[in-house]
């Protein structure tokens, strides 16, 4: 990277406020990553004592994250970018970013005035620490709003009707249901709230120095946005606000903007404190998966698999077929298109737990044991849900042997393969339920931490019977944000595909499916469906 750092080159910055860390990437005119920096919440901000960046209560099914930790991470990451060589922030032409979807931030009355008048000689966290009515924000792992979900679906008519309107049936982690729960149980905090941001628009607000609008793509993850008319659904707003729709609409901000829309220039705080150019523009921030769709430069026959805290599959769709399975979001690159998405809450944290239990917390041993068992795992199937899963909504570990009988435990090598095969079998059958079937021509583009693990990627190729490509860059959210920042200024002269053409070539084959993969995993998928049905419909 040393050879491409020049002090006079134009740069675009992308941020990704994900569950476990804040990431930042700077790209140059040639779309090459020239600087990057990370702040890992648990390790770098230990005073908050988070576990994987969150606080969770398995009994109450709640999951939150301290807003102040996110703000302190911003204070840290810009200095780390400077330490990593980005001396002159005046080179930065534009900024965008993304955040974990569905999380919500509650700004106290009077906070926008504080945002607009920040003192550049002081840290952000010192000045904003009294600006939030809810100190620990609900985040996407929370599943404590089942009552609110049922009420919303009843109010709109049915789960399917809500899916047609907003792209998804009611999901516990979706922001509208989280807001509804806060109105019911923490009305004092809600009534003192001036603005409700998503994690993405919260981050954007820090950079533009006032409340930033929610973008269409991340807004599609709230059960509040009409994805057909591209505006808030008054029926949904009325339902979740318990008929206080005018107040909630005001708190959300009436405007929802296309993801590639410019929303302002950088706040004077960053100009004075870090030396940004006052003309540095800010493009709307979006959800992490939407930004990853851009960062992975998906083609029409590609599907992306993000193997992070959540395991997420997403792909571009021209005509949405909303169903009570999965999600349809407005597309971040072209808001006349859509993106399909399947999410599994139990991703990297579960793989890490199984590694700790079965492979002495050692990935090399994990891979050795995984590779030591033949494909199909002798017919053994496992379900491993540290958190209540999104679909099926169950929690716990469940193991079934070749005969379909539940067993209490597996040998370590069988457990490891059952965990990885089970995670991918679930993604496979739920993606097929959404109408997307992979074939030999399908390219699976893998990103996220586990995409750098060859043994796990080989299982992904076999279960989907498709070739898996990985790029040299597992941080697709931050990269996608930087690309969207640059594209927002060029969209009138070229398409996104034209802009990123050269990046597509950087994807390399990471694993090809075995010849017997289709036979083995088609049969295992049938058995997986039957067992999942049995778990969700107890006798
Ligand atoms: O809930 C999800 C998407 O619906 C997750 O992928 C989060 O965005 C992860 F931050």
From TrEMBL:
GO cellular component: cytosol
Record InterPro entries: ATPase_NBD, Carb_kinase_FGGY, D-XK_euk, FGGY_C, FGGY_N
A GO molecular function held by the record: D-xylulokinase activity
UniProt KW keywords: ATP-binding, Carbohydrate metabolism, Kinase, Nucleotide-binding, Transferase, Xylose metabolism
Enzyme class: transferase
Domain Carbohydrate kinase FGGY N-terminal: 139-295
Reaction equations catalysed: D-xylulose + ATP = D-xylulose 5-phosphate + ADP + H(+)
Domain Carbohydrate kinase FGGY C-terminal: 304-487
EC number: 2.7.1.17
Homology family: Belongs to the FGGY kinase family.
Record-given protein name: Xylulose kinase
Species this protein is from: Dermatophagoides farinae
């Amino acid at each position: 990277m040393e050879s491409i750092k020049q002090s006079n080159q134009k740069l675009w910055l992308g941020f990704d406020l994900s569950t476990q860390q804040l990431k930042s990437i700077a790209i140059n005119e040639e779309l090459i990553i020239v600087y990057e920096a990370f702040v890992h919440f648990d390790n770098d901000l230990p005073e908050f004592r988070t576990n994987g960046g969150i606080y969770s209560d398995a009994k109450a099914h709640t999951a939150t994250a301290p807003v102040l930790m996110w703000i302190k991470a911003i204070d840290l990451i810009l200095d780390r970018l400077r330490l990593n060589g980005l001396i002159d922030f005046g080179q930065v032409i534009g900024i965008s970013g993304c955040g974990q979807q569905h999380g919500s931030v509650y700004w106290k009355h009077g906070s926008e005035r504080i945002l607009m008048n920040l003192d550049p000689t002081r840290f952000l966290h010192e000045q904003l620490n009294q600006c939030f009515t809810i100190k620990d924000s609900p985040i996407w792992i929370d599943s404590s709003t089942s009552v609110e979900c049922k009420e919303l679906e009843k109010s709109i008519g049915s789960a399917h009707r809500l899916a047609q309107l907003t792209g998804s049936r009611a999901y516990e982690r979706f922001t509208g249901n989280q807001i509804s729960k806060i109105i019911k149980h923490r009305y004092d905090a809600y009534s003192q709230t001036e603005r409700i941001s998503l994690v993405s628009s919260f981050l954007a607000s820090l950079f533009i120095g006032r409340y930033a609008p929610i973008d269409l793509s991340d807004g599609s993850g709230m059960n509040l946005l009409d994805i057909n008319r591209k505006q808030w659904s008054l029926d949904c707003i009325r339902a979740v606000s318990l008929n206080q729709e005018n107040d909630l609409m005001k708190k959300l901000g009436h405007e929802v903007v296309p993801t590639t829309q410019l929303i302002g220039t950088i706040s004077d705080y960053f100009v004075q404190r870090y030396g940004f150019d006052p003309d540095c523009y800010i493009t709307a921030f979006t959800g992490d998966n939407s930004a990853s769709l851009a960062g992975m430069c998906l083609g029409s026959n590609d599907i992306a698999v993000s193997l992070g805290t959540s395991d997420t599959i997403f792909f571009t769709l021209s005509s949405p077929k909303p169903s009570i399975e999965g999600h349809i979001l407005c597309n971040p690159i072209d808001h006349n298109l859509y993106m399909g998405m399947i999410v599994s809450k139990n991703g990297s944290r579960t793989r890490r737990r199984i590694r700790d239990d079965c492979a002495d917390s050692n990935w090399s041993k994990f891979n050795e044991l995984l590779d030591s068992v033949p494909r199909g795992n002798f017919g053994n199937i496992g379900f491993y849900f540290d958190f209540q899963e999104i679909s099926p909504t169950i929690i716990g570990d469940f193991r079934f042997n070749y005969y379909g009988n539940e067993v209490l435990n597996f040998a370590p090598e069988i457990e490891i393969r059952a965990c990885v095969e089970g995670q991918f079998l679930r993604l496979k059958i739920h993606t097929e339920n959404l109408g997307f079937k992979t074939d030999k021509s399908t390219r699976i583009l893998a990103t996220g931490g586990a995409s750098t693990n060859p043994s796990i990627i080989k299982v992904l190729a076999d279960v989907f019977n498709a070739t898996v490509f990985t790029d040299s860059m597992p941080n697709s959210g931050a990269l996608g944000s930087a690309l969207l920042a640059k594209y927002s200024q060029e969209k009138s002269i070229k398409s996104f595909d034209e802009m990123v053409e050269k990046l597509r070539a950087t994807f390399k084959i990471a694993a090809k499916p075995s010849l017997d993969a289709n036979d083995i995993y088609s049969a295992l998928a049938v058995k997986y469906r039957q067992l999942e049905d049995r778990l969700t419909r107890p006798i």
